[in-house]
Each structure stands twice: as structure tokens, then as C-alpha cells.
Design a protein that fits this description.
The structure holds two protein chains of two kinds. Chain A is α/β, with parallel strands linked by helices. Chain A is built from 15 helices and eleven strands. By secondary structure, chain B is of the alpha/beta class. Chain B has one domain: Rossmann fold (3-Layer(aba) Sandwich), CATH 3.40.50.1820. Chain B has an eight-stranded mixed sheet, sandwiched between helices. Classes of the chains: A alpha/beta, B alpha/beta.
């Protein structure tokens, strides 16, 4: 099993009456709610936590991309990832991911991801989401009915840019480039592991299965509700892929660990309710612009139910609902281990994206929960998939001789060596 | 009223509602497509040979995947006109169809008789932003388009029972196809630089506007008149954006007065 420590980077200062006074946490929430001076502390604290997760032994540290969003303050996850690449040298840096249909031209993603892979010494996991309608259509103005087509073209361009040995011309529908020539190139060959985060579009399942990409289901509905969709994915894997390695699948789950179940509620309940009651308050008009979802996905009807339920339920959820519904896995190390094992086995996943910071959790609670998980839960779950123990097809292949930048400092030993080697000035 | 099926030179199959006799009149429908009852077309068919094609994405025939941008839309309009073998027909377009009709006229006014635009989309004024029809739930759309939202809901859904899951899914599919297709020329801002081509619109032109239009307020009618100096403007009382459904009698009269 691989565990990635994820931070959505929410704004922790949304007002108490946010749901009543504002129509949406995403797209058109007023910028006056953001305070850049408080933001200085927020970003640095969140980046510290990701570095702390590396030191605790998590396999990966994860970031993602959202725009104009009160619960996701990473319009450019690559900036955060660049900081992490310089301050860690062990964990995978999981950028899940860049919304490649939004970059003009998307060669920019090939370049920035290559930079991250090189700086980190081959530790990048490259995520390519189609992107939510809020981000893609309403914030970034992409035409809903053409978004997926543009996404596929961007994917083709990036993969060729990483792998074609010579500069080439790309005559796309959305991108025309006479000279595609990606400098630098990624360390990992033929390319960094590709993760496709999905919200349940059924076309994406076939695509991942056919191209041998990891499918990552990111939702806040938890592992019980997530089962129907992951089952749909595994059905397609069985039909299309050469094997059913659990490492083909990843799932995002909110996890909180305390010494006892009772203490978990005392420590974390208010912050989970902050997340569900304020951060997920999205105006329904932004969730489904006509043309974004394919006809096949609408007809499958699975998302409709989830969406309708999520809008209704999230206003009224209590801690008990969150636990019983599987939205949140929380409790003592033993409770969390037991539930995580159940999740891993029922969803058949080799990767967990653990959301350990949620809502307005203070730093010490985040660290407390993360440390308990790393020390007392993670080791118990490491070998759930004994049969697939050596299957690292969807994981990073770091360069052994990589620089460990967090162990150096400007003007320090490496710089001194470089100076000694320099020829004397004439 | 009959229905014929055509295939354009591009290879898109289209159904076309045909009725009446007289000078040919090509009618391009708006955002809702052609409804089972189109009272304006009934009235026009007492004097003209009315041909109303169903735009790709708005009916059972497919083909919308082949229309990707404004150029494709405009040429599809001409392809239909040619497939129907119409000689200089009058061209009438409503809303989305008005935008396409204006683009067609900018390409080739000489190939048309007279042009009538009923609350056409296609322009954008920063000082009068148009409500975002893609950023509302489907249930809120009638209130944006009709003066009487309840009547609008009935007309757009055909009195559908939304508690029936299959009916709801069918409606969502149809809505996604219609507005998804329209979004290719309207999203996120319904401006594909038509204003810079309107100097070529030389056909005699009538603008018809609902006095209660909430989607396109009166400032847009004024802007059209600036850009198409020969255009006359008729305002229709008691109608919002869906004026052909809301006030068919008054719209028919305005068209007949203008088309002769």
C-alpha cells in the first residue's frame, strides 16, 4: 500500500454564517473574504505540514489545482510542488494534477512537470484531470461541449513532447505549434507515473484502463458512497486491462486519528463540520453546465444521485452521520486501521490519498493526527496487498544519485565545492 | 404541417418542418429548439412557404459533433438553404437562430430576400452584461426567458413529470444536447466577433424585440441598430425573450408588415 498525505489548502477563515450570506464557495465568492496577510501564514503552515508528512514516512505528498475556490487555494499547484521539491528528497510529489485543457499551449504543463521531475530527482507523480466545471468552464471559460476533446488533445501533445526524440510539428484543433521541443525532459522514463483524477465520468474509466493509467477517484462522499463508482471502474479494467492490480486505483479519504474514538470527536468534529457545511457550499448552477458531461454519463445517472444527495445532505450532517456514512474515517488507531482496511479491500485500491488537514483544523491537530496515523496505522496496512507487493508500475522511480537539497543551504558545502573547482580569474 | 428530411453537402441529416405556400421563408429556431406547437409558424404559413429546420443537437438526428465553431454554424445554415433548393428566401431567426441568421447574411446578403431577427444573440456590451444562461440550474431557465416563468416551464418541458426518473434523465439529456451545442457559440460570452462582420449585412432588415426581454435588454436592440443602420425596430408588448411563443400574433403581424 502507498499512502499520500494530501492538503487541499482551504481558506480557514470563512465566516460562521457563510452558507446563509453567500451563494457559493467557488467561482464567485467575494474576494473581500480573502486576507493576504493571513494568507501568508496559511500557505506557509500548509507547506510545513506537507514537509512534516514527508518526515513521518508517508509515501507521497499531494497537491491539486482549483481556481476561485474557498477550499482549494492552489490555482498553481506547481508552485507549491516546487517548494516541496526543494525541501524534501524522499516522498513522491503528487501533483493531482494540472487541468491540461486550461493551459495554452499545454506544452507549458510538459515543461513545468519536467522541471519538477528534474528538480525533485524523479519524484513527480503527474496528474491530468479534465477539471471540474467550476474550474474549467466557469472560471477559465472553456466551452463545456469541447472541454473533453481539448483535454484529449492536450494529453496527446504532452505525452509526445516528453517522448518524441526530435522536435516535431503539432497541428491540433486547439493548438498549432510548429516546433514542439520540451526542455527540460523528465528524469523518469518513459514518463512520470500518470494519474487521472476523476469524478465519475464513465469515459475516463475506459481511457485509464486502455492506457494503463492510474484512476484516482476524488470525492468527499467517502468510501462507502465511492464503492459504486470504483466498482464501475474495476468492471472496465476487467474488460480492458491486462490485470487488476490494485495500484491501478486510488481513492481520496478524509482521515482523523486520536488516542480514542471519543477523543477523535472532541478534537476533530468541529473542523469536519466546517468543511462540509461551509467549504462544500457550491451554487448548483455551477456544477453541471450543459455539454460538460457526455450523454453516456448522464444516462448512466450515477452522478445525478450523488450530486442531488450531496447538496441536500451536507447542510444537515452531524459527526455521527460523517462517521457512519464513511465520509470521514476517524477514531483510535485501531478503529482507523480497521476502517481503512475495509476501505482498501472493498474499493480494491493500492493508493490512499489521505486528507489529514480539513477545513479550519489548527496545525497541532493536523500534526497529531498525521503522526498517530504514520506511527500506529500505516505500518499495519503496508502489506494488505501481499500478492502485488512488488508492483511499482504506478509509482515513482527516483534517481539514486539525486541531490538532496534540504540538506544543503546557500553558501554551504556544495556551493563551496563549486567555487573551489572554478578556474582562477585572469 | 409536414416534415421532410434532408442531407446537407457536409453530410448532416436534418429534419425540416414545412408548411404553407408562397415566397420561401427559412426560420431558424432559438435556444429551445422547435416545440411541438409553434404558433408563429402556423400564422406565417398562411402567407409564406415556411421551412423550419431542426438544428443539429436539437432533435433526434445527430450531427452536432461536426459543428464546432461559428464558421461551421454559419455554413450549416447555408448548407440547409442549398439542400432545400431555396432561391433568395426570406430569413427569420430567433435568439440563437437570429445570431446564426445575421452571420449568414454577413457572409452573403445577396443570397437572401429580407432578413428578420427576433431578439438575436451575438453581441456583448460590457456595461450591460447578459445573464449567464449556462450558470443556472435547468429549472431557472424559464424565468430568464419568459415573462411568465410558469408558462415557460410548461412549454419547455412539455408538462413533464420530473418525479419520474426516466423522464428526468431524458430531459437532462435533451437539455445537455441543446444547450451544449448552443454553448459552442455562446459560452462563456455570446460574442464571436459578429459585430466586426455586420458591416457586410446589407439585406433589408427588421429587428423584433420583446419589451420585457430580461436576457437581452433594450440596449441591445439599440446596439444592433447602430451596427445595422438600415434595420427597422419593432417592439412587442407583453413579451420577453421567447416572443414567438409569448406573442405570436404581434410577431407575425410585424413580420408580415415587413416581408410583404
Amino acid at each position: 500500500m502507498k499512502f499520500t498525505w494530501f492538503n487541499l489548502m482551504p481558506w480557514p477563515h470563512l465566516p460562521d454564517d457563510f452558507r446563509r450570506d453567500y451563494r457559493s464557495v467557488w467561482v464567485d465568492l467575494p474576494s473581500e473574504l480573502y486576507d493576504p496577510q493571513k494568507g501568508n501564514r496559511v500557505y506557509n503552515e500548509y507547506m510545513d505540514q506537507l514537509e512534516y508528512a514527508d518526515s513521518l514516512g508517508f509515501d507521497g505528498i499531494g497537491v491539486n489545482e482549483h481556481h476561485q475556490n474557498g477550499y482549494g487555494l492552489m490555482p498553481s499547484p506547481n508552485i507549491i510542488a516546487a517548494g516541496l521539491a526543494r525541501r524534501t528528497s524522499r516522498a513522491a510529489i503528487c501533483v493531482i494534477g494540472n487541468s491540461i485543457a486550461l493551459y495554452n499551449p499545454p506544452i507549458r504543463v510538459a515543461e513545468e512537470f519536467a522541471m519538477l521531475d528534474v528538480i525533485s530527482g524523479g519524484r513527480l507523480v503527474a496528474g491530468f484531470p479534465v477539471g471540474s466545471p467550476m474550474d474549467t468552464n466557469f472560471c477559465y471559460g472553456q466551452i463545456p461541449a469541447l472541454t473533453r476533446d481539448k483535454y484529449y488533445e492536450a494529453h496527446e501533445l504532452i505525452m509526445r513532447a516528453w517522448q518524441d526524440p526530435e522536435p516535431f510539428a503539432f497541428d491540433g484543433k486547439y493548438n498549432q505549434l510548429r516546433y514542439v521541443n520540451c526542455w527540460p525532459r523528465p528524469i523518469q522514463k518513459p514518463h512520470p507515473p500518470i494519474y487521472i483524477p476523476g469524478g465519475g465520468s464513465i469515459e475516463t474509466w475506459d481511457w485509464c484502463a486502455q492506457l494503463d493509467y492510474n484512476y484516482s477517484y476524488l470525492s468527499f462522499n467517502g468510501y462507502i458512497a465511492g464503492k459504486a463508482l470504483m466498482d464501475g471502474y474495476w468492471e472496465r479494467v476487467a474488460a480492458l486491462a491486462p490485470d487488476e492490480s490494485p495500484y491501478r486505483g486510488a481513492f481520496a479519504q478524509i482521515i482523523c486519528v486520536a488516542e480514542t474514538d471519543q477523543q477523535a470527536e472532541e478534537l476533530y468534529a468541529e473542523h469536519m463540520l466546517y468543511f462540509y457545511n461551509r467549504c462544500l457550499h457550491v451554487y448548483p448552477g455551477f456544477s453541471d453546465p450543459p455539454g460538460y458531461r457526455t450523454i453516456k454519463t448522464i444516462q448512466a445517472g450515477k452522478l445525478d444521485q450523488l450530486r442531488a444527495e450531496s447538496q441536500k445532505v451536507f447542510t444537515e450532517l452531524t459527526w455521527k452521520d460523517l462517521i457512519e456514512g464513511g465520509y470521514v474515517i476517524a477514531g483510535s488507531p485501531e478503529t482507523v486501521r480497521e476502517r481503512c482496511e475495509h476501505m482498501i479491500k472493498t474499493l480494491h485500491i493500492g493508493h490512499v490519498f489521505g486528507l489529514f488537514h480539513m477545513g479550519d483544523m489548527p496545525d497541532w491537530k493536523v500534526r497529531h493526527s498525521s503522526r498517530l496515523f504514520a506511527e500506529r496505522v500505516l505500518p499495519q496496512l503496508r502489506d494488505v496487498w501481499g500478492d502485488w507487493k512488488d508492483d511499482d508500475r504506478w509509482w515513482i522511480k527516483p534517481y539514486d544519485e539525486r541531490v538532496r537539497p534540504e540538506e544543503s543551504f546557500p553558501g554551504g558545502p556544495r556551493d563551496a565545492r563549486a567555487h573551489r573547482a572554478a578556474p582562477e580569474a585572469e | 404541417m409536414g416534415e421532410i428530411s434532408i442531407e446537407t453537402r457536409r453530410g448532416i441529416r436534418c429534419r425540416v418542418r414545412e408548411s404553407g405556400e408562397g415566397e420561401p421563408l427559412l426560420y431558424l429556431h432559438g435556444l429551445a429548439g422547435l416545440l411541438p406547437e409553434e404558433p408563429l409558424l402556423d400564422r406565417l404559413s398562411t402567407r409564406y412557404r415556411v421551412l423550419a429546420p431542426v438544428w443539429p443537437g436539437f432533435g433526434e438526428e445527430g450531427g452536432e459533433d461536426r459543428l464546432e465553431d461559428m464558421g461551421d454554424f454559419t455554413l450549416h445554415g447555408w448548407d440547409v438553404l442549398e439542400a432545400l433548393e431555396l432561391e433568395r428566401p426570406h430569413l427569420v431567426g430567433h435568439s440563437l437562430g437570429g445570431m446564426i441568421a445575421a452571420e449568414m447574411a454577413a457572409v452573403n446578403s445577396a443570397g437572401l430576400g429580407r432578413l428578420a431577427l427576433l431578439a438575436p444573440l451575438g453581441l456583448w456590451m460590457d456595461e450591460h452584461p447578459i445573464p449567464d444562461i449556462f450558470g443556472v440550474t435547468p429549472m431557472k431557465v424559464p424565468g430568464l426567458l419568459f415573462d411568465d416563468a410558469q408558462q415557460g416551464q410548461m412549454l419547455l418541458s412539455g408538462g413533464l413529470d420530473f418525479s419520474d426518473n426516466q423522464a428526468l434523465t431524458d430531459f437532462m439529456v435533451a437539455n445537455a444536447r441543446r444547450l451544449g451545442t448552443a454553448g459552442k457559440i455562446l459560452f462563456p460570452i455570446p460574442n464571436r466577433r459578429l459585430s466586426k462582420r455586420l458591416y457586410r449585412l446589407t439585406a433589408p432588415t427588421l429587428l423584433v424585440w420583446g419589451a420585457l426581454d430580461r436576457l437581452l435588454p433594450a440596449e441591445y436592440a439599440a446596439r444592433w441598430r447602430e451596427l445595422v443602420p438600415q434595420a427597422q425596430l419593432t417592439e412587442v408588448e407583453g413579451a420577453a425573450h421567447m416572443l414567438p411563443l409569448e406573442q405570436p400574433e404581434a410577431v407575425a403581424k410585424a413580420l408580415q408588415d415587413f416581408l410583404g
